[in-house]
Amino acid sequence: TMARAERHREVISRLARLRQIAPLDGAVPTGAVQSVIDEATVILPLADVIDLDQERARLEKEIGRLGQDIDKIENKLGNEKFLSKAPEHVVAAQRERLAEATQARAKLAEALGRLQLV
């Protein structure tokens, strides 16, 4: 992820109007928002720039959506009929989706927790 960010640093910085793109060194700053994108977590220190109540609501909504997705996938994987009839690659894909959604929800919950402190 950092290699891609380095390759495209100039374009990303210009389009997003960023001062810098750097890996996180230490704890996530208080009042920062984050978004999970594939294997990366983008962190933007925005406490003085955005409406924190609106960001809290956005995070809560996204956590709820991921929770619903997780429930659906868990129900599917808990269904013996599905497991016996579905090809192994389909079952493996569902397990991967479950792991990704669970990880994303945990990261968003951490972000929400940090915003609660602001």
User: pLDDT average, as an integer?
Assistant: 88
Q: Output the helix-strand order.
A: HHEEHHH
* Approximate shape: globular
Q: How many beta-strand elements?
A: 2
Instruction: Determine the N-to-C terminus distance.
Output: 29 Å
Proportion of residues in helical segments? 55-70%
Strand content: 5-15%
Question: Major sheet: size, sense and barrel closure?
Answer: 2 strands, antiparallel
User: Helical region count?
Assistant: 5
Strand order of the largest sheet: 1-2
Sheet/helix structural class: mainly alpha
Low-confidence parts, pLDDT < 50 over ≥5 residues? none
Query: Which value, in Å, is the CA radius of gyration?
Result: 18 Å
Walk me through the structure:
It is built from five helices and two strands. The protein has helices spanning 2-7, 9-16, 52-77, 80-85, 88-116, and strands at 32-37, 40-45. Strands 1-2 form a two-stranded antiparallel ribbon. The mean pLDDT is 88.
Highlighted features:
2 strands, single chain, mainly alpha
Write the layout of secondary structure elements.
Layout: H1 2-7, H2 9-16, E1 32-37, E2 40-45, H3 52-77, H4 80-85, H5 88-116
